[in-house]
Design goal:
Elements: H1 2-50, E1 63-65, E2 70-77, E3 81-85, E4 88-89, E5 92-96, E6 100-107, E7 116-119, E8 124-127, E9 136-143, E10 154-158, E11 167-173
Parallel strand pairs: 1-5, 2-6, 5-11
Antiparallel strand pairs: 2-3, 3-4, 6-9, 7-8, 7-10, 10-11
Length: about 170
């Protein structure tokens, strides 16, 4: 009788060991699969988030709070035309309410540009006028107020000739 109990114990122990091995292997496979799938999904999501309809990559739009009343704006031609302000391309701007700003706009590119500030309905509030290619420069003076944006304190800036490439939002803050 002793032999059959020992045999049953040994068989049970082997079955438990086998089950633990199978479960452990399944857990490891699941972790590796999840990890690989998760990083693949993250990579695909990142790539998709960076692509636009015309196959160019985009980065999040920086926001600059204008602490100076004199603002240097440069037209650039890096992967398409863009405005460059404080070293950032097409940044969103925060401007203080009831404050006068002077934008000096330079155009070293090979195309005509103009800087336009418009309200949220698209009505032009200020423009630099056309800036000729190859180093032309113009001044745009603009004074913010709380009502210039139709009450929602949001404006925008853009180039009339490249409105989809050279643009940004302006938030008026007190």
């Amino acid at each position: 009788m002793n032999d059959s109990r020992d045999l049953n114990s040994t068989t049970t122990a082997k079955n438990v060991k086998k089950t633990i091995t199978i479960v452990s292997t399944a857990i490891i496979v699941a972790i590796v699969s999840f990890s690989t799938t998760s990083s693949s999904i993250s990579s695909v999501t990142m790539v998709l988030a960076q692509q636009t309809d015309n196959n160019t990559t985009t980065t999040p739009t920086p926001t600059i709070t204008l602490s100076e009343n004199a603002v240097q704006v440069n037209a650039t031609e890096i992967k398409g035309y863009k405005w460059q302000i404080n070293g950032q391309f097409n940044p969103d701007l925060r401007m203080l309410a009831n404050t006068a700003y002077t934008f000096t706009v330079q155009n070293p590119t090979d195309s005509t540009h103009n800087l336009i500030i418009a309200d949220s309905q698209g009505k032009n509030l200020a423009t630099s006028g056309d800036i000729q290619p190859g180093g032309g420069s113009r001044i745009l003076n603009f004074k913010t107020n709380m009502t210039s944006s139709g009450g929602n304190n949001m404006l925008g800036y853009h180039c009339e000739y490249h409105p989809d490439l050279m643009k940004g939002a302006i938030q008026i803050v007190s």
